[in-house]
Amino acid sequence: MIKLLRIELFKIFRRPRTYISFGIVTAISLIIQLAMLSGGKDFVSFGMQGVTDQFDIQGDIINGYFVTYIILQSLLVQIPLLVALVAGDMLAGEANIGTLRLLLTKPISRPKLIMIKFLASLVYTILLIVWLAVVGLFLSLAIFGEGDMINMKSDAFIMILKNDVMWRYVAAFGFAALAMTAIAAMAMMLSAFADNSIGPIIATMGIVVVLTILSSLELPLFNLIKPYLFTTHMIGWKGFFDDQVPYGAIGRSASVLVIYTVAFLGTTIAYFNKKDITS
Amino acid sequence: MMKKIMVLLMMMIVAVGAKSMEADKLYYALRDKVMKVKDYTADVKIKIDVNYMRIPEVKGKLFYKAPDKMRLERNGGLSVLPKKNINMTLSNLMPTGTVTALDAGSETISGKRTRIIKVIPDGESNIVLAKLWIDEGALTVLKTETTTKDQGMILMNLEYGAYSAYGLPTKVLVSMDVKEYKLPQGVAMDYNDPMEVKQKPKDGKPRKGTIQLTYLKYDINTGLSDNVFKKPSK
Q1: Predicted local confidence at residue B234, as pLDDT
Q2: C-alpha–C-alpha distance, residues A40 and A114, integer Å
Q3: Rounded CA gap, A154 and A271, in Å?
Q4: To the nearest whole angstrom, how far is the Cα of A135 from the nearest Cα of chain B?
Q5: Residue B58: domain span
Q6: Best mutation target, B64, B74, B78, to test chain A (most A CBs within 10 A)
Q7: Contact present, A147 and A59 (Cβ < 8 Å)
Q8: Is residue A276 within 8 angstroms of chain B, CB to CB?
Q9: Mean pLDDT of B146-156
Q10: Would you tell me which residues 92-151 of chain A have a C-beta closer than 8 angstroms to some C-beta of chain B?
Q11: What is the mean pLDDT of residues A68-88?
Q12: Any chain B CB within 8 A of the CB of A223?
């Protein structure tokens, strides 16, 4: 099992496109950090207008923790595409280059092959999130320093003391990894349906974009289906930055993501088990 | 009979006048005592309880210099204080210059009998009316109700300890009107329980907010420099 996993990881990390994802994460993080260095004050003063009308806030609001939050808020919308780049290629890529049939001649069951490929995608996803933590959190802390973190909600101004922030980021990155695991599972499922990798990657992104729009629109019709969309629950990481962490809501969101992951994987295994492999 | 009534009326007018003068004197004596504190540095605990602000209780060092300079330092952390026109000091809630002070009865606060006086500034001032509950024996203010032009009504409850000789409290609770806070969804960092029904939009009416300051230790009239109050350039 470990040997097969190593082979799958080798396949992933020998492809240059894998590193494009890490490059994109780095570039976006650096752009946001640069933007916050140059124009962060304007951004903050706009957001804080309601508070600063009556209160005087002194100290460094634009610190590493605050900038990391902005990076996460911007990047976690794009990361599904980067996850799909690899997970969507796991089966369809093999089918496309004609190695899938050869692979299945080996003494390994199809469900086991699916699980190994999913685990390899998971390792890639987690490494991407860890890299995001490195360039998003640690680099921001190095550039902007640490301090109390503010969270500007639409109806509340939250201040979290600096010694109470780091664990929240650890939990938030953990939750983000869970959300991206669901995306990886979906991309793999779509990959099982296709014989070329472009289709599953674009389909994954399309589904994420459409469902994210449905999740964010405040319309009565969409409000009915929102709780059942996985995209609604992907922002559960933000809950860790509330003054009273809504563990119940985060737990429910995590459960929905796990259910979706299991459902996507189950569908992949069920379909792939019966699939006639011709390439 | 008519003569007796006239004499009685005259006596009443004189008595009211005398009482009013006493209120003036009491106010000026109190203000002089409070104004003797030119600056202080205090170790404080501050708790802000405003509907839209969720800030934990923080400790810090509070610097004050008369008439209106104030700064909270939190060892590199963020500090939140009301704007200077709602200063957390009694001196800023007492009208300056000549005033008209009127007696408005008495009341017992925390077991202490207080005399209530209403103070109206004679000249131009942001304060429209100040109502003070004064412990005459200790010459300290236990409660104030100040109506300002731009910040509505500010209520202040004060408790005294070791520094009452300077008119400095050990605990202050300020209640004030706070405006509604709303940030556009596009820039907000929101997370709401996806399974929960959305709350009704807010009505936009002003709410009450309270700020509790506990003074642990004062260093008084040490000659604080203005540089202490300058914001670091960043």
Answers
A1: 45
A2: 45
A3: 44
A4: 21
A5: 18-217
A6: B78
A7: yes
A8: no
A9: 83
A10: 147-148, 150-151
A11: 88
A12: yes
Residue with tokens 């032009």: B149
- Give the residue from B50, B80, B84 with the most A CB atoms within 10 Å of its CB, the best one to mutate: B80
d(CA B190, CA B201): 15
The reply to whether A161 falls in a domain is yes
pLDDT tens digits along A223-267:
888 889 999 999 899 999 998 899 999 999 999 999 999 999 999
User: Which residues have C-beta within 8 Å of that of residue B19, sequence separation ≥ 6?
Assistant: B103
**Which among A148, A233, A248 is the nearest to B77, CB-wise?**
A148
Rounded (5°) CA angle A201-A202-A203: 90
Give the 3-state secondary structure of residue A33.
helix
d(CA A157, CA B182): 10
Most confident of B55-59, B95-99, B200-204: B55-59
Residue of A nearest to B189 (CA): A153
The residue range of the domain holding A191 is 2-274
pLDDT score for B43: 93
Closest to B99 (Cα-Cα) out of B125, B129, B119? B119
Looking at residues B73-82, what average pLDDT do you find? 81
CATH classification at residue B206: 2.50.20
Strand (E) positions, A153-197?
Answer: 157-160
> Which residue's entry shows tokens 């209640």?
B175
Establish if B187 belongs to a structural domain: yes
Q: Is residue A279 part of a domain?
A: no
Instruction: Please state, in angstroms and rounded to a whole number, the distance separating the CA atoms of residues B146 and B152.
Output: 8
**Measured between beta carbons, which residues in chain B are less than 8 angstroms from residue A56?**
80-84
| pLDDT range class, residue A277, cuts 50, 70, 90 | confident
The pLDDT of B42-69, averaged and rounded, is 88
Q: Count structural domains, chain B.
A: 1
DSSP string, A86-106: HHTTTTHHHHHHT-HHHHHTS
Strands B79-82 and B99-109: unpaired
Candidates B99, B223, B110, B128; CA nearest to B171 is B110
ipTM of the complex: 0.71
